[in-house]
Amino acid sequence: MAAMAPATTSSSSLPPRLAGRTLRPTRLLPLPGRATSAGAPRPLLLSFPAPAPARRRAAAQKTSVEYEFDDEEEEGEEEYEYEGDEEEWEDEDEDEEGEEEIDVEAMEEEARGAAADLAKRLARELTIDDDVREKRRSSRDKASVSKHVPDNLLPKVAIIGRPNVGKSALFNRLVGGNRAIVVDEPGVTRDRLYGRSYWGDQEFMVIDTGGVITLSKSQAGVMEELAVTTTVGMDGIPLATREAAIARMPSMIEKQAVAAVDEAAVILFVVDGQAGLVAADIEISDWLRRNYSDKCVILAVNKCESPRKGQMQVLDFWSLGFSPMPISAITGTGTGDLLDLVCSELRKFEGLDGVEEDKSDIPAIAIVGRPNVGKSSILNALVGEDRTIVSPVSGTTRDAIDTDFTTDDGQKYKLIDTAGIRRRAAVASAGSTTETLSVKRAFRAIRRSDVVALVIEAMACVTEQDYKIAERIEKEGKACVIVVNKWDTIPNKNHQSTTYYEQDVRQKLRILDWAPIVYCSATNGSSVEKIISAAALVEKERSRRLGTSILNQVVREAIAFKPPPRTRGGKRGRVYYTTQAAVGPPTFVFFVNDAKLFPETYRRYMEKKLRSDVGFPGTPIRLLWRSRRRSAKQGKSTGGNSMSAGAPSKVVVAA
How far apart, in whole angstroms, are the C-alpha atoms of residue 393 and residue 237? Predict the structure, then answer.
């Protein structure tokens, strides 16, 4: 195992790799449980100095010195070029004869700063348009003096009207953000969209709805009104099925609008002041008077940018039987008076004095994937109602739909249904502004979520676009559950089908090899509850914090099993201290002598060892490597290290 050589051996008789080098006794890294002459190992130490008496005895022996070389390690050990400064290593070699003091508190502070810098850098790389506006809205909500009442207990205000009258623009004005997609084309909004708003001390929920279309329109007129297509993303669907889906679309949108009006305390009936009074406005007003005479209906005449002209524009709308109010959702003209009237009506209802403040953070689960993989069907199956419109028409879901969900054991979640994400080139070639904004909201839903359910279609398995979405999830640092939907469409399944399918998914989605896989069928509700169970597990792992002593012990064992590789100059990386600097995702900072001495292969090995020894399934983990080399002048003049001094808590680490 070890070769013996006398101390007087000339350099020519040494192996080629050792010729011209001064040999010193090899220091063996203490394995867990191995006793040393220096006593029991101190806590938080990743490497230990050789016992001082043994070093003095070895130096006193001038006749012969034993040199131990591991033949297998010398033959199979990886070597690579080191681009650092060799003079810095001369100072480090001198330091190896003594011990270094490491300021633990300073290193913990540096680790937290490094984790924060990494999060900011990744946020800049993954920037999304309108992020600044979203941050302003979030800061405004946090600054609100009102207590945080659960969404389902707040009074609701529904916005209703025919297509393209500015309902979504008014919704964005009231909630103070860019939540709803606003495009100058009809039929953009289809599902119900909820948002919190407040005016003074009154807080309420605003519901945006799709445009209500008269049933007398022909199918061609409906298609033009809704701006839908029967070709894009509908390959393989029979023409009759496409036409049937288009024909059902108006009734499904109207059903969503009716649900919003049913649960609302105040109804905002929006009309277009520039277009004037049309037949659809008369039909909607008659429907409201006939079915909701017990509710407060406020007629808002939108697109009245000029206050003086607005008084002329509202004259035609007095015939609807409601008092019209001229407003402009874009410029904000008249919205203050509108909110005063809304709040005066909301105060007539029971107050929320007895409602307890909800301070707990509700985990958010974003459901993302390619178009037509069953995302909306999964949401409806989980909540047990038709919360979103399900149709074979490509691009049915456009906004990011938030839905509160409570499990049988009382655990609350926020489910976010998103639009299908197509390839960037396909979106650009289509030239659809609506689809571009839908994809951005899907990406924003990933960012504001805690867990992402990546839905793939069972028959199509993993595609290139699925891998692109998986890359986005991993970069955002979100916990993930891979959902294989439409599992019932796989023919001739047996007990080995799941095993073979999982191997295929793991091979094609290597970037998410840590994510659990759930097989379900949303149409018949089979195994959809397993999605919530898996999401709860990975959400806890994403926020789990590992003890420092356990973490350092795991790293010490990993280094003992496989030490870092040497450079061509014989240098090897050493780990001084390891700490977990952040959660969500778990971020670990390694303080080493030189980060360049740890190649990418060894860093991946360390990540695998952490996962195999301490878990963290379903969440990405980040490893940061911080160099702690000393400058030559500082090391010789102070005899210390480059870390901040004066902190009370210190630990001694062998050099």
Answer: 9
Q: What is the DSSP string of 308-355?
A: HHHHHHTGGGGGGTS-EEE--TTT-TTHHHHHHHHHHHHTTS---TTP
| pLDDT tens per residue, range 35-56 | 443 444 433 333 333 333 443 3
581 SS3 class? strand
Helical H segments across 543-643, by residue range: 548-561, 600-614, 632-638
Half-sphere exposure of 111 (CA within 13 A, CB side): 25
Burial of 651 (0-12, 13-18, 19+ CB in 10 A): middle
Which is nearest to 485 in space by CA: 344, 390, 563? 390
Phi first, then psi: what are they for 420, rounded to 5°?
-65, 140
d(CA 472, CA 449): 13
Identify the H or E element spanning 257: helix 239-263
pLDDT confidence band for 347 (50 / 70 / 90): confident
Quote the percentage of the chain above a pLDDT of 90: 42
Q: What pLDDT is recorded for position 416?
A: 95
Strands 324-326 and 266-272: unpaired
Q: Which residues of 184-215 are buried (b: 16+ CB within 10 A; e: fewer)?
A: eebbbbbbbbbbbbbbeebbbbbbbbbbbbbe
Which range (90-99, 414-423, 493-502) has the least confidence? 90-99
Q: Is the pLDDT score of 610 beyond 90?
A: yes
At 375-387, the pLDDT tens digits run: 999 999 999 888 8
Residue 190 or residue 590, greater confidence: 590
Q: Which two tokens stand for residue 636?
A: 């010789």
What are the CA-CA distances from residue 180 to residues 141, 204, 238, 249, 280 (Å)?
18, 17, 32, 20, 23
Q: Which residues pair with 194 in a beta bridge?
A: 207
Dihedral of CA atoms 208, 228, 223, 524 in degrees, nearest 10, equals -80
Kindly list the distances between the CA atom of residue 644 and the CA atoms of 56, 102, 118, 593, in Å, as whole numbers in the listed order.
32, 9, 22, 16
